[in-house]
């Protein structure tokens, strides 16, 4: 056990020393990996932010039913009764005063609404039908629109639904891309390690002759691959941080123009940990494949 | 300690390096292998260290059948064998002491203990003042002594040397042979391949003569 730990420590320090001895090629490999990893993780972050934006909007399709300001009490009663029927999941009455108050808070229009002589907004119902299919929704909206006392109906959140569908495709795309770049990562790591193995051919052969096991020979290269992967992950983090710094003020300005307090959220600690863990793992995997293959070659050409 | 029984080694391409060799080397013996180059001396040493496998016949070292030895077991066999090469096989990317420490690192020794042992062995071969030097800066004789130090640092019961004095002038060669005599006297089994008659006469010991893959005993 102590011997094993000693071997691990020895392999780790020798891998670190090797990385430090060739700073330029270490840096270049890390950059190549970093760029490769930053594409899927950047896309992931972008989608994450987009779905946060979409999440603030109703994902459930809703119908807004605006009442005619001149509607009679009986009409309103009839509408309320209609909305209790089983095809409606939920219906919420929004009095016009509440609507104005919400508007002035969310859009920062308090000064404008204060200047109004009277509330221009109508009373409204926000209705969630039980159905989700587009035709059925349109039918319900149409039916509600024909009730006496209803000025207008508006089928909301169709676009939110579409956005959700697009985001789902986007997420699948991220995973596909991540899979492809994981392969690229294994290839980059494998190639870098192969060069290392060939450069240290003599040492490997001599070590074999004086009783080194395959594991002993392989170990420093595996650490090398893992460390290289970790550096690649850190480089990707650097690339994304730089991109985030560039984009943040522009996104916030755009959101501000739409009256939203939306801002770019950085990745969470656990997301960073997962990315670094995965790049380390794939760096290690590339090294393992490459060392195993190259060692067989070294042996064959003894 | 070592026994060959009807051992034949044929290389790919048909060259037959050893032909039906049978011999026994006891523990603590000092054995010289002689013969012209290409007579099979190196092949015989390689078979003992499991660097090559016999085409037919049985090679047994410390009771282990080399032909049946699994790949995984080979390193552990080699840790009990010190190897001295004619071309030294030193590593020029590290210092003298790091070269000597390597077998102990491989065997999983504590670093401090390993350095202590390495220093003792380097002292024994007379290179203590060159401990931090790069092996490139050593003379041929010094490089050979360094190779011997590396072979001995793990205190093997068996030392195999392939032309250890091959490229050295007489003074250095005598030094190295004297060192071998010392190891023989403390009980190490030595098998030395050489065509250097000076060595044979200086040390005595048993002589096996190889000729075209056949082995014959020579009485001095």
Low-confidence stretches of chain B: none
- What oligomeric state best describes the polypeptide chains here? heterodimer
Broad shape of chain A: elongated
Beta percentage of chain B is 25-35%
What would you report as the Rg of chain B, rounded to the nearest angstrom? 17 Å
> Helices and strands of chain A, in N-to-C order?
HHEHEHHEHEHHHH
Mean pLDDT of chain A: 83
Count of runs of 4 or more consecutive helical residues of chain B: 7
CATH superfamily of the domain at 1-80 and 158-164 and 189-220 in chain B: P-loop containing nucleotide triphosphate hydrolases
Shape of chain B: globular
Strands side by side in the biggest sheet of chain B: 6-7-8-3-9-10
Poorly predicted runs of chain A are: none
| Amino- and carboxy-terminal Cα gap of chain B | 23 Å
Structural class determined from secondary elements of chain A: alpha+beta
Please give the CATH architecture of the domain at 1-80 and 158-164 and 189-220 in chain B: 3-Layer(aba) Sandwich
How many domains of chain A? The number is 2
How is the topology of this model organized?
The complex is a heterodimer of chains A (302) and B (220).
Chain A: H1 2-21, H2 23-55, E1 63-67, H3 73-82, E2 88-94, H4 96-106, H5 110-114, E3 124-129, H6 134-145, E4 150-155, H7 158-199, H8 201-209, H9 214-257, H10 269-300
Antiparallel strand pairs in A: 1-3, 1-4, 2-3
Chain B: E1 2-10, E2 16-25, E3 30-34, H1 41-48, E4 56-61, E5 64-65, H2 74-78, E6 81-84, H3 96-106, H4 111-124, H5 140-152, E7 158-162, H6 170-185, E8 189-193, H7 197-203, E9 206-211, E10 214-218
Helix pairs in contact in B: 3-4, 3-5, 4-5, 6-7
Summarize the structure.
The complex is a heterodimer of chains A (302) and B (220). Chain A has 302 residues and is of the alpha+beta class.
